[in-house]
């Protein structure tokens, strides 16, 4: 028996009906979304809106993988599909009818031409495992993941993890995008770095494809080629935002917060230079939405600021604060801060990143915040 | 008859008593401050603190020129000298006893080795006129001025105006420095660009002198050589902050504000490239306190944000808002925005600076703010 949403979609017409406008590409793209948290759902809404508006480019229906959970006495997928709202992670925002919550990840991934991957960093490994064996040789992905992977082998960016684990060509979307604002269609910019895969042939796609999928009147897209820079910036700004929250919690004022953000920007640029030499452009950090603008908006009032602020005020362990404040969501700056410190320690480069080190020491090693200015003094 | 403050200073000892530590320079420097507004008084406090602490480098007493005015039934200079507080422009902050308010500008300027100039842009011309004829051939100045001068001859930076009008070698201090926070000794950073004057000889001074004068435990100084970049950034960030205020007033959220700040940073960099080619370094804008950090703190909550916010909410003329909100202080973004637009129009470069143009059109030409995103879209 079809679900109410499937029935509604049927009633609204055949999603694969021939489009009245010819596509400029060889085929229509089927889009899937992996992940349905706050940001995951907001981005799913964007792509579903565009798939609905541009039947000549995209298949109408978009499946979004939802890690099944119960909310009150209903499954979250059933709630989303019946009420068009992700009441748990993006409440009070109506989702397009052509966005389908799907608990079986393989049903989303298999057959998708373009996969939007948008998960908390810590779930990436297991989620990739669940998609193992799917043939992605003619698919592409856009990673909205924020983080880095550090191991004995060194540091990996998360879009590289996707490429390696799944053989799935992967770009990056990152920008000044507080999810709740984007979801409410308040004007934002973003950066998408998506070099076309080498196996694309004439007519398969061009640089404009990705803009067609993500651009909305309220969501402006800058296309970049710096996958590495966008990825690093998106990961590390969360650690800087944790630091900005510490400064706020200590009651130090806007000058101090700006000083931490400035130093943070410098260390993000340096992180790129030191660990990915020649692979990212400094301008990405200083002039793109994925760079300085994301840093600014994340430090203005994202989850990491909230956690840092509460830590400075209460001294409670970060994980406790995260649970108390974030309703099941995670503050990625905590986990990324740990990975960064592991990397800096292993490579003996702590001294080159005094702000990142000081933030770590404040939240994990009982360093008093009053030491911060001297630690990061030029 | 000595004033109470002069008497106090006498009682505290001879300000020119030999210092117990030898100076590394050929002589002690006498420091004067021109300007006593909010920021003027805050910086005067800093230099007076250092002059008091370092008698081997500086003469103890610092004169600050105050444009005389009555507050209740007292002269402002008398209030400052009797109560050590600038009740009009920096209330509730105690000033060092060795900082003297002086209504006669020539008594401050004449004989000063280092002059800190800190005025609203619009008073610079007449203030320079009042100092005409003074021999500044062996003096130097630090400009804390924010603005540009546009005329039929083109655009001038304000420290250049000082140099030309007075024959006074002039550097620039600019940074993420909301005055009230600095005055309350909340940690801040700043950038000082002060190339030594060509006539300095061995032992006259070195690059450290300026740090000795301005560095405080709560006020960290980065020394730079980019006078031009620091000056441009300090001027134009006020216009961007006006734009950030508009976005706030329209209720658009942090992503939108970050987008405006990002675009603003780009246009500030471009302004340097276009109008002062080869004279400033892009890194000043993106990595110094005078650059991105000042932009951030100014857009967080300075005077220009307040004015922009109120304009978006009420539509009242800027000058009316300025009077209502700022207690006699000025929002420099208004006047600088006008100068910038005059320059862009005269040089037919409006199209290259869409954000600066849009901000001007919104506040002066009834452009609705809803047009802003399209106007600045890449």
Automatic annotation (TrEMBL), chains A, B:
It catalyses: sn-glycerol 3-phosphate + NAD(+) = dihydroxyacetone phosphate + NADH + H(+). NAD(+) binds at residues 35-40, 123, 179, 303, 332. The active site is at residue 237. Residues 31-194 form the Glycerol-3-phosphate dehydrogenase NAD-dependent N-terminal domain. This is Glycerol-3-phosphate dehydrogenase [NAD(+)]. Its EC number is 1.1.1.8. One of its GO terms (cellular component) is cytosol. Keywords: NAD, Oxidoreductase. The keyword Oxidoreductase applies. InterPro entries: 6-PGluconate_DH-like_C_sf, 6PGD_dom2, G3P_DH_NAD-dep, G3P_DH_NAD-dep_C, G3P_DH_NAD-dep_euk, G3P_DH_NAD-dep_N, NAD(P)-bd_dom_sf. GO terms for molecular function: glycerol-3-phosphate dehydrogenase (NAD+) activity; NAD binding; protein homodimerization activity. The lineage of its organism: Eukaryota, Fungi, Dikarya, Ascomycota, Saccharomycotina. Substrate binds at residues 146, 303-304. Coiled coil: none annotated. Residues 226-372 form the Glycerol-3-phosphate dehydrogenase NAD-dependent C-terminal domain. GO terms for biological process: carbohydrate metabolic process; glycerol-3-phosphate catabolic process. It comes from the Eukaryota. Belongs to the NAD-dependent glycerol-3-phosphate dehydrogenase family.
């Amino acid at each position: 028996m079809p679900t109410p949403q499937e029935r509604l979609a049927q009633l609204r017409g055949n999603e694969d009906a021939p489009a009245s406008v010819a596509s400029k590409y060889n085929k229509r793209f089927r889009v899937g979304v992996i992940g349905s948290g706050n940001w995951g759902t907001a981005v799913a809404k964007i792509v579903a809106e565009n798939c609905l508006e541009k039947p000549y480019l995209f298949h109408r229906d978009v499946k979004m993988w939802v890690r099944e959970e119960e909310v009150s006495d209903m499954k979250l997928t059933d709630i989303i599909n019946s009420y068009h709202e992700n009441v748990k992670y993006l409440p009070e925002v109506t989702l397009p009818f052509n966005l389908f919550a799907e608990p079986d990840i393989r049903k989303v991934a298999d057959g998708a031409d373009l996969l939007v991957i948008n998960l908390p960093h810590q779930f990436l490994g297991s989620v990739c495992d669940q998609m193992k064996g799917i043939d992605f040789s003619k698919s592409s992905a856009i990673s909205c993941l924020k983080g880095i992977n550090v191991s004995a082998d060194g540091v990996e960016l998360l879009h590289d993890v996707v490429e390696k684990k799944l053989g799935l060509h992967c770009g990056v979307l990152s920008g000044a995008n507080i999810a709740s604002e984007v979801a409410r269609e308040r004007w934002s910019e973003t950066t998408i770095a998506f070099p076309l895969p080498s196996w694309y042939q004439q007519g398969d796609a061009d640089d404009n494809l990705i803009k067609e999928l993500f651009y909305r009147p309220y969501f402006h897209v800058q296309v970049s080629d710096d996958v590495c820079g966008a990825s690093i910036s998106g990961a590390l700004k969360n650690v800087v935002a944790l630091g900005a929250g510490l400064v706020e919690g200590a009651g130090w004022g806007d000058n101090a917060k700006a000083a931490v953000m400035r130093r943070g920007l410098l260390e993000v640029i340096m992180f790129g230079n030191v660990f990915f030499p020649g692979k990212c452009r400094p301008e990405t950090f200083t002039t793109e939405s994925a760079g300085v603008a994301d840093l600014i908006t994340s430090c203005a009032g994202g989850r990491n600021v909230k956690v840092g602020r509460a830590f400075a005020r209460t001294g409670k362990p970060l994980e406790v604060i995260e649970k108390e404040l974030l309703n099941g969501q995670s503050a990625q700056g905590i986990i990324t801060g740990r990975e960064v410190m592991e990397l800096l320690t292993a490579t003996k480069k702590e001294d080159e990143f005094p702000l990142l080190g000081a933030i770590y020491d404040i939240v994990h090693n009982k360093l008093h915040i009053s030491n911060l200015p001297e630690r990061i003094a030029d």
